[in-house]
TrEMBL record, chain A:
Pfam family, one: TOBE_2
Gene3D superfamilies xrefs: 2.40.50.100, Nucleic acid-binding proteins (2.40.50.140), P-loop containing nucleotide triphosphate hydrolases (3.40.50.300)
Highest taxon of source: Bacteria
GO CC, one annotated term: ATP-binding cassette (ABC) transporter complex
GO terms under biological process: putrescine transport
Keyword set, alphabetical order: ATP-binding, Nucleotide-binding, Transport
Domain ABC transporter: 10-240
GO MF term set: ATP binding; ATP hydrolysis activity; transmembrane transporter activity
Family from the record: Belongs to the ABC transporter superfamily.
Protein name (record): Spermidine/putrescine ABC transporter ATP-binding subunit
From TrEMBL, chain B:
Subcellular location(s) per record: Cell membrane
Keyword annotations from UniProtKB, A to Z: Cell membrane, Membrane, Transmembrane, Transmembrane helix, Transport
GO cellular component: plasma membrane
Superkingdom assignment: Bacteria
Domain ABC transmembrane type-1 positions: 67-255
Family, similarity comment: Belongs to the binding-protein-dependent transport system permease family. CysTW subfamily.
UniProt-recorded name of the protein: ABC-type spermidine/putrescine transport system permease subunit II
PROSITE patterns: ABC_TM1
Membrane topology: Multi-pass membrane protein
Record Pfam families: BPD_transp_1 (PF00528)
Any single biological process term in GO: transmembrane transport
Length: 365, 274
C-alpha cells in the first residue's frame, strides 16, 4: 500500500455490543485506513462478524461510536451507508439473473443514457464474468456466485467493501485462487476492504493490516508480518500457527526492552510488547518452529542450542522435528524444509539448532 | 419380516395398492358417468350418452345465484385467510419467541376440530354478537377453516427464506418497502397464489359451516343439498358436481405446482451451504 494513503476511513471508538450479560464486543477501538485491505481475524464467537455487521448497519453498538469516511454512522440505516457487503451465503437474488442482480442497487439511482448498463458490464468484467449476464443464479457454480456478489457490491462504488467470510464455502484450490484475485481486485479499485475471517493464512496472505480478536476484544492490530513474528500475547501467537513457548526470568526491565534469562537459550535482550504486564519475575518468550535451523555436521552458528530428536513427522515439502533440549520443560518443535535431508534424521539423534535471538519474542500471557 | 416382504413382493402389494385407489376414487368416478347418462335415475345399465343435463345448468336461475354467492364467499375467504396466513406464517418462520410453537399449534387446530361443533359454536358467537346470518358470516366461518391450509402452504413457501437476501437488498440501498416489493414478494408470490387457490377451493366445497351460518342466500353445496330432495333434479346435481370436482382438481393441481416452485425457490439459497 502506498504510504500517502494513510487517512482514516473507519473510526471505531470504544464500541461495546451486549446481549444481556454477554458482551459480543467489549470496548473495541480501531482505525481502518483509506484504501487498505483490513482483516478482522479470530475464532468463531470472537465478535468479528458483530463488528462487521455494525459497520454495515445491520446491528448497532450498545455504546461507543462508529464513523465511516468522517461521518458518524449513528442512526443511519444500512441502506443509506456508504458501505456494501459480500455476504457469507452470497445472498444472490434467486429470482433475478446475473445482470439484474448486479444492477439491483443501481436501479434506485435512475442513471441516464445507458450508464447503468455500462457500469454493470464494467463490474462483470472486473470479476471476470463477462458474457454470463443472462444466467440465473441457480445455473452458477459457487465461485461464480461469489463473483456476482462481489460485482453487485462493487458496482455501487462504496467507500468500504465489507466481506463476511467470503471464501469459506469454496474448496481449497478455488479459495487460494480467489485470495489472489481478491487482493488484485482490491488494489485495482483502491476501495477500502474489510474482511472477516477465521482463517489465519487467508488473513496473512491478503491483508495490509490485521486485527486479531478474542472474546469480544481486539488483541493486536498490525501488519501480517508483525502479527506473525511479534505476537503480543500467547493467544495471538497460538492462533497464527505453531509457536515454541520458553519460560524466562526477567533480569532487567526498561521502557521498551526486557533482558531475560532462559535455561535453553541463555540471556536474551528483547523488545517489550505493549500489552506486557509483569507478573512476578517470570516472562514468556516465543520462537516460531521455522526460525530454528538444524546445524549439519560441523557447521556452527553464533547462537545455537543442542538437543535430541524425539519425534519426526513428514509433511511432504517440510519435516516437523520435535527436539528435546536439556533445561527446557517442553521440547521444541522445528520445521525444516526437506532439501537437506531433514526427513532422514533418525529419532534419537543428537542435533544442534541455530537461532537468531531476534526471533525470540517476549509476550504477555 | 422376510416372509412379509416376500408376500408383498409376490404381486400382493400391487393388488393392495390397486384396491386402495379404487376404494378412494370409485365413488367419484360414478359422478361423471351418471351425469352423461340419459336416464334420470343413476342406475346401471347405462341407457345412452347425453350432455343434456349440462346444457340445463345455465338455465337454472337459482343455481346461477348460488354459484355467484359461492364465488363471492370463496374469493373473500381466500383473500382474508391468505392475508392473515401471510402474517402468521412470516412470524412463525422468521422469528423465535416464547410460545411460538403453541401459537402455531393453535392456528392449525381447526383442521382437526369436528366441523359441526365449530359450526354450531360460530353460530352461537355470531348470534351473540348480534350479526344477522348472511354471506358475510359464512366468509368468517370459512376463514377459520381455511387458515390452517393457508398456513401450511405459506410456511412451506417461507421456510428457508435466507434472511440475508433482505439484508443484501437493504445493503444495496433499498428501503424496507422496496425490499418487500423487489425481493420478498417475488420470492413468495407463488406460495401466496397457491394459498389463495387452496382456500378458494376449500370454501367452494365447504358445506357444514355454510349450512349453519348462511341466511337465505345459498352457496353451491347448499343448493345441491336442497336439490337432492327432488329425484328428477338428480342428474343436474351430478352434472354440477362433476364440474365442481374438475374445477377443484385443477385449482389444487395449480396450487401444488406453485407451492413446490415457491419452496424450491427459497430453499435454493439454503442449499448453497451444503
Amino acid at each position: 500500500m502506498p504510504e500517502q494513503q494513510q487517512r482514516s476511513m473507519i473510526e471505531i471508538k470504544n464500541v461495546t455490543r451486549s446481549y444481556g450479560a454477554f458482551k459480543a464486543l467489549d470496548d473495541a477501538s480501531l482505525t481502518i485506513r483509506e484504501g487498505e485491505f483490513f482483516s478482522l481475524l479470530g475464532p468463531s464467537g470472537c465478535g468479528k462478524t458483530t463488528l462487521l455487521r455494525m459497520i454495515a448497519g445491520f446491528d448497532n453498538p450498545t455504546s461507543g461510536s462508529i464513523s465511516v469516511g468522517g461521518q458518524p454512522m449513528e442512526g443511519i440505516p444500512a441502506n443509506r451507508r456508504p458501505t456494501n457487503m459480500v455476504f457469507q451465503s452470497y445472498a444472490i437474488f434467486p429470482h433475478l439473473n446475473v445482470e439484474q442482480n448486479v444492477a439491483y442497487g443501481l436501479k434506485r439511482l435512475k442513471l441516464q443514457g445507458g450508464e447503468e448498463k455500462r457500469r454493470v458490464e464494467e463490474a462483470l468484467a472486473q470479476v471476470s464474468l463477462t458474457g454470463l449476464g443472462k444466467r440465473l443464479a441457480t445455473e452458477l457454480s459457487g465461485g461464480q456466485r461469489q463473483r456476482v456478489a462481489l460485482a453487485r457490491a462493487l458496482v455501487m462504488r462504496p467507500k468500504v467493501l465489507l466481506l463476511d467470510e467470503p471464501l469459506s464455502a469454496l474448496d481449497k484450490k478455488l479459495r487460494e485462487q480467489m485470495q489472489v484475485e481478491l487482493r488484485r481486485l482490491q488494489q485495482a479499485v483502491g476501495i477500502t476492504f474489510v474482511l472477516v475471517t477465521h482463517d489465519q493464512y487467508e488473513a496473512l496472505a491478503m491483508s495490509d493490516r490485521i486485527a486479531v480478536m478474542f472474546g469480544g476484544r481486539i488483541a493486536q492490530v498490525a501488519s501480517p508480518k508483525e502479527i506473525y513474528q511479534r505476537p503480543v500475547t500467547r493467544q495471538v501467537a497460538d492462533f497464527l500457527g505453531g509457536m515454541n513457548f520458553v519460560k524466562a526470568q526477567i533480569v532487567e526491565e526498561s521502557g521498551a526492552s526486557l533482558v531475560v534469562d532462559t535455561l535453553g537459550f541463555g540471556r536474551i535482550k528483547t523488545d517489550k510488547p505493549k500489552a506486557f504486564v509483569r507478573n512476578g519475575g517470570g516472562a514468556t518468550l516465543g520462537i516460531r518452529p521455522e526460525r530454528l535451523r538444524v546445524l549439519w555436521d560441523n557447521a556452527t552458528a553464533k547462537f545455537e542450542v543442542a538437543g535430541k530428536v524425539v519425534e519426526r513427522h513428514y509433511f511432504g515439502e517440510i519435516t516437523h522435528l520435535i527436539v528435546e533440549i536439556p533445561g527446557l520443560e517442553k521440547p521444541l518443535s522445528v520445521t525444516e524444509t526437506n532439501d537437506f535431508g531433514a526427513d532422514d534424521i533418525p529419532v534419537g539423534t543428537s542435533i544442534r539448532l541455530a537461532y537468531d535471538p531476534e526471533a525470540l519474542v517476549a509476550m504477555a500471557d | 419380516m422376510m416372509a412379509v416382504r416376500r408376500f408383498l413382493s409376490g404381486g400382493w402389494l400391487a393388488t393392495y395398492a390397486f384396491l386402495y385407489v379404487v376404494f378412494l376414487y370409485l365413488p367419484v368416478i360414478f359422478l361423471p358417468i351418471f351425469s352423461v347418462n340419459t336416464a334420470a335415475t343413476p342406475k346401471f345399465p347405462l341407457t345412452g350418452f347425453t350432455l343434456h343435463w349440462y346444457e340445463d345448468l345455465p338455465r337454472t336461475p337459482a343455481l346461477l345465484d348460488a354459484a355467484w354467492n359461492s364465488m363471492i364467499v370463496g374469493v373473500s375467504a381466500a383473500v382474508l385467510s391468505t392475508v392473515l396466513g401471510i402474517l402468521a406464517a412470516r412470524s412463525i418462520t422468521r422469528y423465535r419467541y416464547p410460545g411460538r410453537s403453541t401459537i402455531h399449534g393453535l392456528i392449525m387446530a381447526p383442521l382437526v376440530l369436528p366441523e359441526v361443533i365449530v359450526a354450531i359454536s360460530m353460530l352461537l358467537v355470531m348470534l351473540q354478537l348480534g350479526l344477522s346470518l348472511s354471506l358475510f358470516t359464512v366468509v368468517l366461518g370459512h376463514v377459520l377453516v381455511c387458515i390452517p391450509y393457508s398456513m401450511t402452504v405459506l410456511t412451506s413457501g417461507f421456510e428457508g427464506f435466507d434472511r440475508s437476501l433482505e439484508e443484501a437488498s437493504a445493503d444495496l440501498g433499498e428501503s424496507a418497502f422496496g425490499t418487500f416489493r423487489r425481493v420478498t414478494l417475488p420470492m413468495v408470490a407463488p406460495a401466496i397464489i397457491s394459498s389463495l387457490l387452496v382456500c378458494f377451493t376449500i370454501s367452494l366445497d365447504e358445506f357444514i359451516i355454510a349450512f349453519f351460518l348462511t341466511g337465505t342466500e345459498a352457496t353451491l353445496p347448499i343448493y345441491i343439498w336442497g336439490q337432492l330432495r327432488f329425484a328428477a333434479k338428480l342428474p343436474g346435481v351430478l352434472a354440477l358436481g362433476t364440474l365442481l370436482l374438475v374445477a377443484s382438481f385443477l385449482l389444487m393441481t395449480v396450487a401444488e405446482i406453485l407451492r413446490r416452485r415457491a419452496a424450491r425457490r427459497t430453499q435454493n439459497e439454503g442449499g448453497l451451504y451444503a
